[in-house]
């Protein structure tokens, strides 16, 4: 063998060794992630875990959102049935702590029956829009809606101001300052009440209407402070992803084959993660997915953003604590486009298996029924559904359901530390 | 939908996503009135991009993620000047867009339309971004940009300026 040939053979051997090393390194890298996840898939899974959630965004429209005294007051208000026209309905009537802060009914039941399914308040601080149609742009504005709804709490601003003055004066004033004089205030008067309640409201001086409305608004702001601390805890899914991310360091938390396949479908072929993205498994946006009966037709977000615009409690109005510049979500919200017709807020999927029924009218009794709907992708009764048929097999649908059940974990109360009990 | 005629009317009236800098446009109109029009601009009143990004499916391997792009008709060179890094997801933020002509001269007093979405998912931007203020040295501030999730997004602009109307698209691969 000549010197030149020997050199070439030597280079060849080096190249071969390098190639082999690359193959081995790749194989090791593949082996390092359990269950055969690719690095891209693992990154997607990690983006869905609570570890990537962080603190909720600030709510500049509510100065008291992170005030612990306001939260403690809000907790007591949340369970108090005196904040209703019949003395029987509290926030907790539909948002039951033992039931994921929802009621398990197809439609909410307060003084009467609502038109939509009760949404959970867990982790509501993370959403820029509240209600199925996003007609409130802050948790405090949301909390005020049911209080004045004829079919929920059924009460009025003057009734609530009188209850606050009678039962919560000291705690209220510690947080929000002096209460207005409620002596001589009508027992029940408000701009959204019955005709006699509206007439009583109209008869009040503007300054009284304003001071009573401020008490009402502060009631909502205290409720937001309480609700802001209601969060999701770690689920089996979070622990599984922690383990596959660091199989040497994290505690072993294997998935069954069905759960693993379901997770792969969820982020892949079933396209669930397109909207159910991020650590709460929601994009906080509005989509038409063909859910909803034809009667009564429900326009969803198309009307919801108009209601938010006209609400006296939105971010840009006088009862908000935010300077106008901080109301970007409201300012730049999409309005009037065809895709908003029949579109509803993507619900978070954490603890989803623990809170049937599903759909904004509680149309589906089981997760299997929901998955069947997405698999079939029927046309919407109003507007146009974004869905395409998935053509998944029965086995695959079962695997998706198995995966959804791994998203269950505890509900935690960050502050105040008192147990979640009615406080009177 | 037939039960909701008011919905249909409102959809038809507001279906176009339109972003215009009124002050800048007024300036452009004044300049145009003072000089003979160089390029007639019949689409000046038709600045619309309504969901054209939906038709722009590009396979993953041939997507150009460049931050400086020539407009489709070759009239302008457009750059995303800010944000410097990858735009955030789930958060409203602003962009600074820089527009110059093919000789590198900054283009001011343009009117912009913006629209965007995810061609693979069929949904648009969750917000209605707006061009705020006029322009300075070819820089335009677009407020209200928001991407609701990671993945492949397309953002398109229609630019109307003295040289004519042209459009440009940017691909974003958000992680």
What is the rounded distance between the termini of chain B? 38 Å
Strand and helix order of chain A = HHHHHHHHHEHHEHHEHHE
Q: What would you call the shape of chain B? A: globular
Count of beta strands of chain A: 4
* Rg of chain A, nearest Å: 26 Å
What would you say the CATH architecture of the largest domain in chain A is? Orthogonal Bundle
Helix fraction of chain B by DSSP (H/I, runs of at least 4):
10-25%
Q: Indicate the mean pLDDT of chain A.
A: 91
Task: Characterize the biggest β-sheet of chain A.
Answer: 2 strands, antiparallel
CATH architecture of chain B: Sandwich
Describe the overall structure.
The complex is a heterodimer of chains A (424) and B (175). Helix content of chain A is 40%, strand content 2%. Chain A has 424 residues and is mostly helical. With 175 residues, chain B is mainly β. Chain B has one domain: Immunoglobulin-like (Sandwich). Chain B contains two helices and nine strands. In chain B, the strands form two sheets. In chain B, strands 1-2-3-7-6 form a five-stranded antiparallel β-sheet. In chain B, strands 5-4-8-9 form a four-stranded antiparallel β-sheet. Mean pLDDT of chain B is 75; it is low at 1-47. The A-B interface holds A 43-44, 47, 271, 274-275, 277-278, 283-285, 287, 297, 299, 302, 328-329, 331-339, 341, 382-383, 386 and B 1, 3-4, 7, 10-11, 13-15, 17, 89-90, 92, 118, 121-130, 143-144, 146, 148-151, 175.
């Amino acid at each position: 063998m000549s010197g030149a040939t020997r050199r070439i053979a030597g280079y060849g051997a080096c190249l071969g060794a390098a190639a082999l090393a690359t193959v081995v390194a790749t194989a090791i890298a593949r082996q390092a992630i359990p269950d055969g996840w690719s690095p891209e898939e693992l990154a997607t899974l990690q983006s869905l875990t609570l570890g990537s959630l962080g603190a909720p965004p600030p709510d500049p429209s509510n100065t008291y959102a992170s005030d612990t005294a306001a939260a403690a007051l809000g907790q007591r208000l949340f369970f108090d049935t005196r904040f209703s026209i019949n003395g029987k309905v509290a926030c907790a009537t539909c948002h039951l702590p033992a039931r994921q802060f929802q009621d398990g009914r197809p439609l909410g039941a307060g003084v009467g029956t609502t038109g939509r399914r009760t949404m959970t308040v867990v982790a509501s601080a993370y959403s820029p829009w509240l209600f199925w149609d996003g007609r409130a742009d802050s948790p405090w504005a949301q909390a005020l809606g049911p209080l004045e709804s004829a079919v929920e709490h059924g009460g009025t601003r003057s009734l609530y101001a009188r209850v606050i003055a009678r039962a919560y004066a000291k705690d209220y004033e510690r947080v929000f300052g002096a209460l207005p004089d409620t002596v001589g205030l009508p027992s029940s008067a408000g701009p959204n009440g019955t005709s006699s309640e509206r007439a009583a409201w109209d008869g009040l001086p503007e300054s009284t209407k304003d001071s009573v409305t401020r008490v009402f608004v502060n009631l909502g702001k205290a409720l937001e402070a309480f609700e802001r601390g209601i969060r999701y805890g770690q689920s089996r899914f979070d622990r599984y992803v922690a383990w596959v991310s660091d199989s040497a360091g994290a505690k072993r938390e294997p998935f069954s084959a069905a759960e693993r396949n379901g997770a792969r479908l969820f982020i892949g072929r079933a396209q669930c993660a397109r909207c159910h993205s991020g650590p709460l498994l929601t994009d906080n946006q509005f989509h038409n997915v063909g859910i909803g009966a034809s009667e009564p037709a429900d326009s969803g977000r198309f009307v919801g953003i108009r209601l938010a615009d006209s609400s006296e409690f939105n971010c840009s109005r006088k009862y908000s604590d935010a300077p106008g510049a901080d109301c970007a979500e409201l300012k730049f919200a999409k309005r009037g486009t065809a895709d908003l017709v029949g579109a509803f807020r993507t619900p978070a999927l954490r603890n989803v298996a623990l809170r049937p029924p599903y759909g904004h009218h509680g149309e589906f009794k089981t997760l299997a029924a929901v998955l069947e709907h997405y698999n079939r992708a029927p046309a919407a009764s109003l507007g146009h559904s974004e869905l395409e048929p998935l053509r998944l097999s029965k086995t695959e649908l079962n695997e998706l359901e198995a995966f959804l059940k791994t998203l269950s974990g505890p509900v935690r109360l960050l502050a105040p530390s008192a147990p979640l009990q009615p406080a009177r | 939908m037939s039960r909701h005629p008011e919905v249909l009317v409102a959809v038809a009236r507001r279906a176009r996503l339109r972003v215009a800098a009124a002050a800048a446009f007024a300036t452009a109109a004044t300049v145009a009135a003072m000089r003979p029009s160089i390029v007639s601009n019949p689409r000046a009143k038709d600045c619309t991009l309504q969901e054209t990004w939906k038709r722009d499916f590009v396979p993953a391997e041939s997507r150009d993620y460049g931050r400086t792009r020539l407009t489709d008709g070759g009239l302008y060179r457009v750059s995303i000047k800010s944000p410097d890094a990858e735009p955030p997801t789930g958060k409203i933020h602003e962009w600074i867009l820089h527009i110059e002509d093919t000789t590198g001269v900054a283009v001011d007093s343009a009117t912009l339309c913006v629209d965007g979405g995810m061609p693979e998912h069929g949904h648009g931007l969750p917000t209605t971004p707006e061009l705020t203020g006029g322009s300075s040295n070819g820089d335009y501030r677009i407020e209200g940009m928001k991407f609701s999730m990671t993945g492949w997004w397309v953002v398109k602009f229609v630019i109307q300026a003295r040289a004519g109307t042209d459009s440009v698209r940017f691909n974003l691969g958000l992680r």
